[in-house]
Amino acid sequence: MSEPDLNSPAGYLVVLRNRQFLALWLAQILAQLVDKIVLILLIALAVADGGADLNKRESSIMIAMTLPAIFLGSIAGIFVDWNPKREVLILCNFLRAACLFAIPFAPRSLPVLLLITFIISTFTNVFAPAEQSAIALVVPKEDLLPANALFTITEVGSLIIGFAIGAPLLAFTLGVFPQASAYSREVLLGSLYVISGLFLFALPKNEVIQPKKLGSGLWTDLREAFQYVRHNHLIGGAMLQMILLYAVLGAMQKLSINLAEVVTGNREEFGSFVASVGVGLAIGALILGKFGKKFTHRPLPFLGFMGMAIGLMMYAFVTNLWVAWGIGTFIGINGALIVLPMRTTIQEHTPENMRGKVFGLLNNGENIAASLPLALIAVSLDFLTGIFGTQNNGKQQIGFQIVLVVFSLLVFILGSWAWKRTKKALEKVL
Questions:
Q1: In a 3-state reduction of DSSP, which class is residue 215?
Q2: Which contacts (CB < 8 Å, 24+ apart) does range 105-112 have?
Q3: Bridge partners of 397?
Q4: What pTM was computed for the model?
Q5: With the C-alpha atoms ordered 109, 114, 116, 117, is the resulting torsion angle positive or negative?
Q6: Would you give per-residue pLDDT tens digits along the chain (430 residues)?
Q7: What is the DSSP letter of 395?
Q8: Contacts by 15-18 with C-beta closer than 8 Å and gap 24+?
Q9: DSSP-assigned beta bridge partners for residue 390
Q10: Angle at the Cα of 345 (from 343 to 349), degrees rounded to 5?
Q11: 360-385 in b/e burial notation, b at 16+ Cβ within 10 A?
Q12: SS3 content of the chain, % helix, strand, coil (to 5)
């Protein structure tokens, strides 16, 4: 197979030469890195006074950061469709910066920190659907696949790098400005949000906003979005596959803890297994963004679900650390076969005045899907481990193996069903 020309519509160079896309991408890189470091800062501030309830404070900050994604995602999407994406994105970054700048002047109490966390997360969840919608505004349809590949790589990279450099960066900032320990970290992160917002001034000002229909409002538009997704089987099927993918990625957080116990004997080393999946996602996105046009006739999402199911099945019997990392990377690569084609499909086939609503619903579904499996997997593991116990001196957990086998079968069955539904709708469009 000959290597494609990078200057073709399928390549990265033509996308990066698009100044408006480049500005949006740079803003995304910076904002998503700051998002992760802000969470580290807020947790550090919450536990700064010490005490016996550190776990409670940490969990409270995490919950406050998660709640807007679950309850306000769809509403955020409607707000995005009502307003120009450029203004929404810039305003969200500047308001998040303002929240950080306000922390040194606010009372140092947990309720205040929780409120600030909730507000920052709310603006982040408005930013997300606006960002996804803006890609289709500045990138032609034929370039959406490599554009989405770059955004997916950034999402995964910010998750890995942001949490890796967050604590050292905050400690370095305190070391450089010890006399400004009360506000130096907040000023640094707030300023980065401002810089991200300044990049976004390059986005087009001439976006056409469809006028609101007579009698339309928040709940009317929300109902319209649900009906649109329900009756448009192509968009609904693509969203369903994305939600199933995030359910698998959410379950991986819990499964990685048990896998770490099996492979290394230390549950605290689970982060490397989660990171291996992220590395796989980035590799898959990089490859698919470059060569994806050659495989548009292939059932990539179906192959992705099949590959993820196989990887989960292999996890049930692995005991070697390097093999476990390799399987995690394999799972991530197959996840990219789902997320990139389906996200591109949504952008290509969703009307401009519906993109914000659709991506708002999608963000809602993804966040719920990423949370629910955590509880279900935990309950199943406790139940089965209680029945079967362990074998091989505790090295292999029978209950853990059963959960992985059943979960892998469910991923294959549900993924195959979701792809079949989407394939039928896609054939009608094409």
A1: coil
A2: 108/45, 108/48, 108/49, 110/46, 110/57, 110/60
A3: 390
A4: 0.74
A5: positive
A6: 333 343 444 467 888 889 999 999 999 999 999 998 998 899 889 888 766 667 678 778 878 888 887 777 778 878 888 888 899 999 999 999 999 999 999 998 899 999 999 999 999 989 988 888 888 888 888 888 888 888 888 887 787 787 678 888 898 998 888 888 888 999 999 999 999 999 999 998 877 776 666 556 667 777 877 788 888 888 888 888 888 888 888 787 777 777 877 888 776 566 678 778 888 888 888 888 777 666 666 788 889 999 999 999 998 888 888 998 999 999 999 998 888 888 888 888 888 777 777 887 887 787 777 767 766 777 777 777 667 654 444 444 777 788 888 889 998 998 888 888 787 766 666 5
A7: T
A8: 15/139, 15/143, 15/146, 15/147, 15/150, 16/150, 18/138, 18/139, 18/143
A9: 397
A10: 125
A11: bbbbbbbbbbbbebbeebeebbeebb
A12: 85, 0, 15
Gap between the Cα atoms of 236 and 346, Å rounded = 9
Alpha carbon of 75 to those of 31, 120, 211, 240, 342: distances in Å? 21, 16, 18, 19, 22
| DSSP string across 293-336 | GGGTTS-HHHHHHHHHHHHHHHHTT---HHHHHHHHHHHHHHHH
218: closest CA among 72, 365, 349, 89? Answer: 72
Nearest-10 crossing angle of helices 144-176, 321-349: 120
The domain 1-149+158-204: what is its CATH number? 1.20.1250.20
User: 177: helix, coil or strand?
Assistant: coil
Sign of CA dihedral 286, 18, 157, 332: negative
Residues 385 and 399 sit within 8 Å (Cβ to Cβ): yes
* Locus of tokens 């997997």: 377
Cα 86 to chain centroid distance, Å, stands at 21
In the block, tokens 């993820």 appear at: 308
What angle, 0 to 180 degrees and rounded to 10, lies between the N-to-C axes of helices 355-388 and 321-349? 150
E-strand stretches of 352-430: 390-391, 396-397
The yes-or-no answer to whether 1-149+158-204 and 215-430 have a common fold is yes
- Which CATH number describes the domain made up of 215-430? 1.20.1250.20
Q: For residues 129 and 80, is the Cβ–Cβ distance under 8 A?
A: yes
Domain boundaries, the chain: 1-149+158-204, 215-430
Position 209: which residue type? I
